[in-house]
Amino acid sequence: MTSGELVEADREGPFTTRQLLRLDEALRIADQATGLTFSIYVGELEDPIREFAEKLHGQIANPQRAVLIAVSPNQRKLEIVTGDEARRRITDRDAKLAAFGMAGSFSGGDLIGGLMIGLDQLASHAGRS
How far apart are CA 10 and CA 98, in angstroms? Predict the structure, then answer.
């Protein structure tokens, strides 16, 4: 995965072109504002889910400075993985708060809104680079 990347496991993913452009822009802004690398994965998560998300995170360039939001709408699963350097700026508590915000939107059927909320909250917690 590259910097600020959105990966959809299903190529006929749940997003319109316009939504993908919005997410791409939000990822770019979060990367620039924080100096961290934010990525989003949407698709099935293999068991054990946390280990699979960590494996995906390890594929990001410079994973120590990376944050991955991994979401599987069909499984109703969400994982946020932070690298060592990113973890110093985004605590587990911060990640949980972002996850709660995302889950609220997801439960209402708003996948794009939830991702935008989570990305914004995580970037806000990370602060400026």
Answer: 24
